[in-house]
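Async update (no meeting this week)

Hi team, since we skipped the sync, here's where things stand on the single-chain job. The sequence we agreed to prioritize is pasted below, unchanged from the tracker. I ran it this morning and attached the output directly underneath so nobody has to dig for it. Comments welcome in thread, and please keep replies under the output.
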Amino acid sequence: MHYEQQYLDLMRRVWTEGAVQKDRTGVGTRSLFGAMMRFDLSNDAIPLLTTKRIYWKTAAREMLWFLTGDTNIRSLVSQGVKIWTDWPLDRYRRETGDQISHNEFEELVINNSEFAEKWGNLGPVYGAQWVNWPRYEDAGKGLYRRADKGINQIELLVESLKTNPGSRRHIFEGWNVAELDQMALPPCHKTYQFHVADGVLSGLLFQRSCDLGLGFGFNVFSAAMLIRMLAQQCGYQPGELIWQGGDVHLYLNHEALVTEQLARTPAGAPKMRLVRKPESIFDYRIDDFEVIDYQPQAHIAAPVAV
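Output:
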């Protein structure tokens, strides 16, 4: 069975059996709670969806951006990555009343550093937690202050994978309860855990919330990409990606997407190769990733719920 069939089966099940739910966006969803998929990553395999085009370089650039700890969209939109623009643009429109277009907003973010600093920031989302989780120091008299340098979970993960492969604590986390209300969007792909056995590195991703129509294709590619990077840095072979979803949903206004995608048949076996080994997990560039044998069917457009 093609690896993508499990995704299509889940999509069909969510659409036909899922409970209709009200959600924060006001759009509404069909939702199921609890799902799992497994993807083999051996022999350079990469779980790119083939029933529609996934713009994998966009997902790769986003993952590399997370690893920098940056939380401002300026560097993303400068690379043509627009997947985070909706949230700060929505805040700008609400707070100023100026119904500026996407393109106008992004041009201001790129060309005006003061505008970008004020309106392009997403709060302490993913990368901030991954590489700079807040740490507090004793300030005396029973008081504590935030330390200048936080905890780099990714750096600690790489070290533990190298030095203590049998540990059951190869985990990094994005769900910082104390800072959720400061984030433009609390982390959907929130918890990552890794496992080493016989020189093979596998990873498990838990998503509290999964937009199966638009988000999943990016999430599963990015997680597989990260496993491959970690395996290369730590001297292991990539094994398997186990994906787990909490609230797995399809938006009610995605009926055309669902109908079209379920009418398609998955085919092909794309592969991803790393063309060099950087000095550290933080030194990868977009040119370090090569995807071959990827011949997807046409992209399917659908609105993003903000």
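Quick observations from my side:
The first strand starts at residue 19 and ends at 21.
Residues 173 and 258 are 31 Å apart (CA to CA).
Reply here if anything looks off.
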